[in-house]
Protein: Putative enoyl-CoA hydratase echA8
Organism: Candidatus Accumulibacter appositus
Amino acid sequence: MSMPPVADALLEVDARVAVLTLNRDDVRNALTGTQLIEDIVRVADWVNRCDEVSVLVITGAGAAFSAGGNVKDMARRSGDFAGDVAEVAQRYRRGIQRIPLALSEVEIPVIAAVNGAAIGAGFDLANMADIRLASRRARFGETFLNLGIIPGDGGAWFMQRLIGYQQAFELTLTGRIVGADEAKALGIVLDVVEPEHLLPTALDLAARIAAQPPKALRLTKRLMKMAQRMELKDFLDLCASFQGMCHNEAEHLEAVSRMLKE
């Protein structure tokens, strides 16, 4: 399946791993005022339809992972931030809010390789991934209140599910910036590595995941997500159905055969 076109990002695929690199270092990979929203949403839809991809890695080119919203546009009340209440709300729904909706529907594991500053909506973008790895240069900040606005992209929903209400509340209400080591201590990132090792580490993890049977991999991610909102009995019924599907897949028998030969 051919790769989708991207305007402000780079997309590469190798050995069942897709790497989406946000490529607007001139604006610190801001999500608004660029084509990055469209790029992310388009790639999220594509990986769901592409059976040749099993893992998606998202990272940034240049100094930042993503600075989130374009503050200069905010100051000018232009672009995504122009208009009255109804107009701004509509732009959010038709703009940046498409990212959390799209990423929440991605059927394969998503790894955020946070190379630098992840601020505001950029921080929230990282939190929409299943796993986060950080460069020692990475910085994280839920800085919306510092600008007199709220996390309009769903950040308040994602962070408290990631690190708990109290920690998320403190970070959101103070708007303070945390470094990579504190982010790991809080449970925001899985690991912190030197900058030159970030992408190789992310790709190594992605390769290990992508080596798993692809159909069972997608079903397992669905189970992990659905477990967060289902009662146990209903969840076990779903597990039984998914397991029946897995036992009837050729990839299951191939995996069993390989294990018996080891």
